[in-house]
Amino acid sequence: MATSTDNIEQLANQDYKYGFVTDIDAEAVPPGLNEEIIRIISAKKGEPEWLLEWRLKAFRVWQTMTEPQWHNVHFPPVDFQDIIYYSAPKQKPKLESLDDLDPEIKATFDKLGVPIEEQKMMAGVAVDAVFDSVSVATTFKDKLADLGIVFCSFSEAVRDHPDLVRKYLGSVVPASDNFYAALNSAVFSDGSFAYIPKGVKCPMELSTYFRINAAQTGQFERTLLVADEGATVSYLEGCTAPMRDENQLHAAVVELVALDDATIKYSTVQNWYPGDKDGKGGIYNFVTKRGKASTNAKITWTQVETGSAITWKYPSCILQGDNAVGEFYSVAVTNNHQQADTGTKMLHLGKNTRSTIVSKGISAGKGQNTYRGLVRIGKNAKGARNFSQCDSLLIGDKCGAHTFPYLEVRNTSSQVEHEASTSKIGEDQIFYCRQRGLSTEDAVNMIVNGFCKEVFRELPMEFAVEAQKLLGVSLEGSVG
Amino acid sequence: MLEVTNLHASVAGRGILRGIDLSVQAGEVHAIMGPNGSGKSTLAAVLAGREEYEVTAGAVTYDGQDLLEMEPEERAREGIFLAFQYPVEIPGVNNAYLLKAALNEVRKHRGEPELDAMDFMALVKDRMQVLHIDQDLLKRPVNEGFSGGEKKRNEIFQMAVLEPRLAIMDETDSGLDIDALRTVSAGVNAMRSPERAILVVTHYQRLLNYIVPDVVHVLSNGRIVKSGGKDLALELEEKGYGWIEGVAEQVGA
Amino acid sequence: MTTLAPTEAYADAFEAVRRTAAAPDGIVDLRRRAFERFTALGMPTTRLEAWRFTNVAPIANTAFTLAVPAEREAAKADTAPHALGLGAGLTFINGRYVAPASDVSALPAGVEVLSLADVLASDGNETRAAVEAHLATGAGIENEAFTALNTALLHDGAVVRVPANTVVEQPIQLLFVTSPPPGGEPVMTHPRVLLVVGENAQVRVVESYGGGDSPYLTNTVTEVVAGPSAVVDHYKLVRESPSGYHIGAMHVRLDRAANFSSHAVTLGGAIVRNDAQALLDGEGVECTLNGLYLANGRRLVDNHTTIHHAQPHCSSHELYKGILDGEAHAVFNGKIIVAIDAQKTDAKQTNKALLLSEDAQINTKPELEIFADDVKCTHGATVGQLDEDALFYLRARGLGLEQARSVLIHAFAGDLLNHIAIEPIRDQLDVLLLAQLPGSGGGSFHVAG
Prior knowledge:
Chain A is an alpha/beta fold.
């Protein structure tokens, strides 16, 4: 009789289905990093002098820094001189309409299911698509503009809204913040920018799809989101990359600014190429994401991390104003040789600030999953509250789960709760479901999705469905 | 309904069942008693199709079908229900959701239409009352954070909803206090019917005061060494399992 | 100020017990060894990890003498508030069994509820042999000074034996009251409880502790041995007076498929230490340790628990809740050990404390030692104040501040109270809790009457 382990393995060790390469010409700079490269990038993008200076300053800081060693992931040292820091698909310099988009790129996004066509209007999602390092298409721009909402590529924002960019760039993640943030500040090529004016509730989900295509290329995009007083926005981010044998570096920076009474919801489904079963290839995903919440503002990070060979990211909230709220909901999956060291920082500065952390780590194969979180309640954060819940699910006995919650409470009127659990999905649970009449496949899906439910609940509907599917694919062949 | 013939089974190469013969007809309640390690739970597991157990000889037919050829979920859909000795926790999956999925699998199998949420809730409501199941318990993740008594009640509750034709209760009484034992027994008794057979696996006689069996079998060392009426259980409790081991030796000789 | 040094007082007490309390040779020898251990260990200090936050200097610096039989009327007055009227139970005043205040006639045949002193003084019958066989097997005298001291001075207490397959539906109360002498010199008692529950048997036992208003020490040790599939509910109500010190240790050994639950409620005492240790020594055991403690003034309440999962498929649940006011100090230390063979263990520990004042303090520490790989262990700790929003909401609905506070505090304790299956206890706790909440006029958590 076939064991259920066999059955699950037969469910196909489905390969990474986003792993195709798009065959288009790319315009790239030579590998390596020096001030000259930065000047080339800045010049190619026609940037103003202040931005070049900002980049060069970041580069000089970066040169004095070393890579962080405290994390719980292991990989051979990255040769930062062997990376191509700028690659752009060759095409007309400026698109008049989506019809002008290179058909190959358009086909790629179609394959990915990215709704960049206007006909997807029904989906009600405005998309900015970043291909390698350059934003190639932004939809619904006009409709948004009617409300005063700016949603465009970072380069366009630098050109068309320099004051906004200059005011907020680096205001949440300074160039000197950490090694990878400094690198990004020096070489970032594009990304997304959104500004929601005072009191405006953005009527649709804003979305960016990131795609690394070219070989040997690093992707260093920069996202800056500003919700002015009383504004509300929900933003989605998705990522994929082709299958390649070498590791590729992705070092992004995301900055969120939520002014008084503003609400920002930032959701990520990260599905960069994770490498093959033997751990060859895959993306190194070293990302700095942080938001600053003013009085009564709220920032919610939701992430489903199924891809990348290595994930290193801690979407954080600086709860600066009184009554500010920070939330972090995360599902991180590591299968085969994937490693993830992820979590959040909640820095409570204002009075009555609140934060919620729900982290679900799933480890399968030889995957290693680390939750690392910091909750800091400052001296003046009277009445601050935090609730943290970190659950780990182990599938098989060669994987690992690690939990490092750091609590720093400098205020007696605050309330901090922490819960943690580690459990194992096993034959027992699957057999129990089968004895009740469910198939093995349904049983595994039910168990894993049940475990992640609290996080999926936070995702916009479309994303939640995609995330559930993704999870199934990421874990296939892993139960035993 | 269930015919077990010369059933031998082993786990990890160790022989546990060594020639079980058992015939259960619809409408009957059979109790299987025996000391720890006699093979009671193994028998229950083999009937449900647990894969760690290897059947090395013998046959089992269920309504004339070869039971041993069927996958666990097929057996479940055909109406075999195992109330687990150690009910498994499934975090995040709520009790009602699992039960609805299970019920609809069974209904699909029978060619009946699937139930929607409304009909499902109507169905479970009266079953909940018999077993003192709170609405709240239905919404909680399967068995997670349940006390031992709640887990056992939940098993019987699932059984009441799924309406199996052959119900196997594996030491459902262990760890239950007297009140919970009464509740669980009431739930089981409410299910007794001419179409349904119940196999009660237990270590102690007390449960059989409440669920009165038609036949009592005593299992020792992987074989049924004695069968009789409900008084056999009382006799067994009085004389202890040592008595039956003596009987077993005679049978084995 | 007494002229006697504390150590001399203990030596005198040991000598008195040796001379007067009849016991078989094995027990006499046990006492001697225990006294040697106690002498070697000395009173614990905060340098020991297990006593790091619990300073027992006020006990260590006091010369307690063994309590003598109490004056009748005073004893009656001190005992009355603690009697639950459960219909079956033994009463001990000043550490000694009081037959006229005890009645266990209503219990099923074969169930033994006896005075330990009577058992030890009896001829070598089966009961005495069983007591000798079990005594001090769970509660080791090697490392715990207070347990060693209790054992050295072992003379009376309760023996409860339930034969196999017997269900005792009626709860049994064991009431221990100290009625200090009128002069107010410090006295001590060292009660011992032994609970042996046979296979597939069921019993509920309530231990109650209280005393009069003058310094005394209750140093109690309880040992529970539960056979396969036994169901045991244990309640401990500590309502010592504001000048009473209470040190209690409970050691529980659980066989296959046994189901044990403990509810430790601490409402009184100047310094209270409850140690609970459970060994899950068979497959399929279910063990629940619950606790509720209230402290105000400068009182200190320390709960230490150890749950040792030695076998597979066992589950343990632990929920401790504390309410602290004034300058009260609480300690919670919850250790869970999961042995390498204890696969499929499910252990859950939760500790919540509610601080009603800026000066109240709690030290809470979960300790998980997990050696098996297929287990589920969860721990959670919360320390917090009353929810300002909820308070405001209630006040906006017309409740006074104090009333709103007491509603919320009561709600905080509610889920623990709901776990208490013996109605007279739950009712009494409900009343006590309400009476003792800050602002309800109680002031003190020790309420007589």
